[in-house]
Amino acid sequence: MRLIKVATCVAAAFIVVAGSASAQTYQLSFPSGSDGVLGNTCTDGSCSNSEVIRANYGSVAGVVNSIHGSFATTPSMSGGAANASWWSVCCGGLTGAAWEYSGAASWSFFEFDAVPAGGSITLNSFQLGYFNAATRRVSYQIWDETGVRASGSSDIAGGAGGSPVTFSPNISSTGANGILRLFWSGFDQTLGGNSTGDWLIDNINFTVNSGAGTPSDVVPEPASMTLLATGLVAMGTAARRRRRRAS
């Protein structure tokens, strides 16, 4: 009976270790070829200016699904035509970036979905730059299944001598399916309205927080290791006692 109780204790320790959540952070940049983790930016493996970016670029099998697109009017969590394109150098510091063009009054987006559903996405930071040699104001909104989670804006100096702006929202999704959409637009803002096609995005840094991890990708908590060690010692003591009785 004593040995059975000890074995149960050890099994409980393993369950605590394996059931812990895990987090993986990615940087979505847009090289001409492949970044080695997220695959090729463009379908043919080597991008040229204005070439369309792969529809699911940024996806990692079994971890996160990524899509991109734009809306002609107001942002939404459903739909959106995928038409992000690639550009080599822009805006005084962006080397390899994505841009969307769909006319005035539009919002562009990148969406990240945790896999399997039940995890969450944290948007850590991203950069925006303006293509033309002028100063314009860009706005962003971050949505999940519950609605708008954060928003902001900034004036950005564009062109070759411009300066991209880094935004660091550190916002996590709260919906059951772990979906987060980042929208940006420069239309109808102070300093002059312009289409979203003049805006480029780069270096989207995000973290995928899974609902449960595995022993290989989780660092055990100290309390779990203490429980495991105590169980192993007790098992050894019980075994020695049984050998003594047998002799």
Task: Kindly describe this structure.
This protein is an alpha+beta fold. The chain is 17% helix and 36% strand. It has 2 helices and 12 strands. Strands 1, 3, 4, 6, 9, 10 and 12 form a 7-stranded antiparallel β-sheet that branches. α1 runs antiparallel to α2. The chain is globular, with a radius of gyration of 25 Å.
What distinguishing features does this structure have?
247 residues, alpha+beta, seven-stranded antiparallel beta sheet, disordered N terminus
Envelope shape: globular
| Number of beta-strand segments | 12
Helix and strand element order = HEEEEEEEEEEEEH
Rg over alpha carbons? 25 Å
| Major sheet | 7 strands, antiparallel
> What's the rounded overall pLDDT mean?
78
Layout: helices, strands, pairs:
Elements: H1 2-18, E1 23-28, E2 64-71, E3 85-90, E4 94-99, E5 107-114, E6 120-130, E7 135-144, E8 147-157, E9 165-167, E10 171-172, E11 179-185, E12 199-209, H2 222-246
Antiparallel strand pairs: 1-12, 2-5, 3-4, 4-12, 5-11, 6-9, 6-10, 6-12, 7-8, 7-11
Quick summary of this structure?
With about 250 residues, this protein is α+β, with helices and mostly antiparallel strands. About 15% of the residues lie in helices and about 35% in strands. Strands 1, 3, 4, 6, 9, 10 and 12 form a 7-stranded antiparallel β-sheet that branches. A 5-stranded antiparallel β-sheet has the order 2-5-11-7-8, with no helix packed on it.
